[in-house]
Amino acid sequence: MILYLKQSTEPGDVLFHVLDESGRLCYEIYRKKHWFGKRIYVETVQGEQAAYINCIGFANMLRGSVFISGKKQVVLLCSFAAAEPLFKIHGQTWGFRGDVLLGNFDVVDVDRTVIFIHGAQWTPGTGSSYILQIEQPAFAVESLCISALIDGFALGGECMQAAAEMN
User: Sheet harboring 127-134: ordered strands across?
Assistant: First the structure.
């Protein structure tokens, strides 16, 4: 399964439009201020909530907790102080391979099974976009949420703003 995350350039709260391989809109990812940080929502084109992400920031760390059907599935930690990897996933046995900051990376399980492949693209005049090749369809929504958090961070998006507002 291949999805394209296209940065929204319109005013408002939409961060990304998510398109399928045929170029049809299948999800929208948008933000809202929350009582403690920000919340990012992933909705289908039918308006159904596929997931939400609580995004909070501290001095040198950002935390994005992904909830699907009201249950926490994974947590993405972005640490700027540690000598360890900058990004870590909790709640799964997954890790990153490649250059997360440049947007060209894979998420793999401990047995080296590829969960998804992420690539950065840029189109003149239309802003940033990302390609997401999901190798494990059972984790499609989790993959989309992790990508949205990282891509939002790369664009100076919601997680970065949440950290600035919290400090």
Answer: 87-90, 71-79, 61-68, 49-57, 37-44, 25-34, 14-19, 2-7, 127-134, 114-123, 104-109, 94-99
For 24-31, which contacts have Cβ atoms below 8 Å and span 24 or more sequence positions?
Answer: 27/3, 27/144, 29/5, 29/144, 29/148, 31/158
pLDDT digits (tens, 9 = 90+) for 16-68: 999 999 989 999 999 887 666 688 999 999 999 999 999 887 667 788 999 99
- Residues sharing a CB contact under 8 Å with residue 29, sequence separation 6 or more, in sequence order: 5, 14, 15, 16, 17, 18, 40, 41, 42, 43, 144, 148
